[in-house]
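Quick question, first post here. What does this chain look like in 3D?
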Amino acid sequence: MTSVTEAAAGAATDGVLGDALSWLRELDGTTPDEARKRLDGLRAAHPGVGMRLVWQREAATGDYHYDLLFPSPGGTVSLAFAPDRAIPWPLRGSQRSGEQLVLRVNGADVLIERAVSLLDALWDAGLAVRLVNACLVEEAVAAARVDPTGSLTGSLTDEELQRAMDAFRRARGLLTTRATQAWMAERGLGHARLEELVAAEAAVASLRGRVTAGRAESYFAEHRDAFDRLRVVRLRYADAAEAGNAAARLRDGEDAIALAAEAMLGGLATCRMEGNHREDLVTLHGEQAGEARAGAVLGPHRLDDGGSAVTCVLAVEPAALDEITRKVVEQRLFDSWLRDRRREAHVEWFWGSTARTDELTARLKA
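> Answer (accepted):
Ran it through. Tokens below.
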């Protein structure tokens, strides 16, 4: 007579679970990078099944323990394999004391828990959004490496990697070999690691392209007014009273360029001439920027750093879906896609009080 255990074991050897279990057995002794590369083959064999690999490094032995997650509408199935020589369950998750230590000052230890408690910026929703977005993008990039037919999309060709490397360096002002080498040395990066970073950035750009493909034109048509480009003079004053006086003089008809020159020479303000999309000025100055025309004076507006901004509109250029605007539109679409994914994501925090993490999670999903 077949036991329940034997029946379950037999069922687990069929189909995707059987293949996944066999795949997990073969990971013994591999690094996470190698395991992620091998996952492409399993995804290709089962293209209709979503799967994600997670791992934990056992501090006592240095070995990696892997779990394969299968998301579904009602929950997530987790599959793992632990060899007989694996660390005993009571010691799972234990840490060497050194792994909790961030730094030591005059003999006084600062542990990771203490360091995190001092990082108030961590509880800022903007930083939390970036952390969660990074995880969601990594998940989507990994899944996208297998196309709908089950074939691997593969890595970048040498030519594609070189183009991506050139773009990566230009974006950071690394225009010479010496500048690039200095930048790498400051960050402790070797050439292989730099290529990994470049390939990852290229993969994210490819993901953004797939998410926004064929949607930029319709989004632009629907939100055309938001993409008017306003040529402005922006003055930043440290003193709020000086900012108010400047705004009043501009509204009385004083020339914006002359006033900016006077303020800069007198050390009262810094000045920038910019081209901004209307939507950006609405974010800074509120709804008064929504209908601003040439000659409009916006502000003064209190800045986060305590200063005050005054903006004078010199000219308004009607919106056009040029290269710059297209990039902005695609970023808006990508941000919207990420916002929808955050609302569906299961986020777990491993530090902080429940009240604080629950509040932050709610803000992430708003």
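Residues 191-212 form the longest helix (22 residues).
The domain at 229-317 is CATH 3.10.50.40 (Chitinase A; domain 3).
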